[in-house]
Design a protein that fits this description.
Layout lengths: L9 H4 L10 H8 L19 H10 L12 H11 L12 H12 L5 E5 L5 H8 L3 E5 L8 H5 L1
Helix pairs in contact: 5-6
Length: about 150
């Protein structure tokens, strides 16, 4: 099919492309070709990965051909024990983007209202649009989420 827009739902086709911050390479080229840069945008860690994470990755490389446990049983078990709750109360995913999308698709119906704080992650707006729902953005209160206003 030559024009995919003809088959995409209207509310989905109106979603604006996410514009991430500049890459570290682009920042260096533009602002400090010789200097050291600590990028704090895009939820990136200027300190790099934890040595324990690097060790765990190295130890699991030989299992890279195997599909991981998609139920995240061990992770949920450890988290549940640490938090003192049932693992059935946990939902894990590959970051907040996936979790917000999954929860929105699972629980929202077209025409319902999605409530989020202003300045929240852009995914809230995108999920509301995908689900053909109304987004209500609650202003921050002293640079914090106003939970009372969200619940009201």
């Amino acid at each position: 099919m030559s024009n995919m827009k003809k088959i995409i739902r209207d509310n989905v086709s109106r979603i604006e492309r996410y514009k991430p911050g500049l890459s570290l390479e682009a920042i260096k080229r533009e602002f400090a070709p010789e200097g050291e840069i600590s990028k704090l945008a895009s939820n990136e860690n200027p300190l790099g990965p934890s040595p324990l994470a690097i060790q765990a990755i190295r130890e699991s490389l030989e299992e890279g051909n195997l599909y991981p446990d998609d139920s995240c049983y061990d992770l949920k078990k450890c988290l549940a024990e640490h938090l003192g709750i049932s693992s059935k109360n946990l939902c894990v995913g590959n970051g907040t983007t996936e979790l917000i999308l999954l929860l929105g698709v699972a629980f929202m119906n077209p025409g319902e209202t999605f409530i989020a704080s202003q300045s929240s992650f852009i995914m809230a707006k995108m999920v509301a649009q995908v689900m053909d729902s109304k987004l209500v953005e609650v202003p921050l209160k002293k640079y914090r989420h106003d939970l009372d206003a969200i619940l009201g």
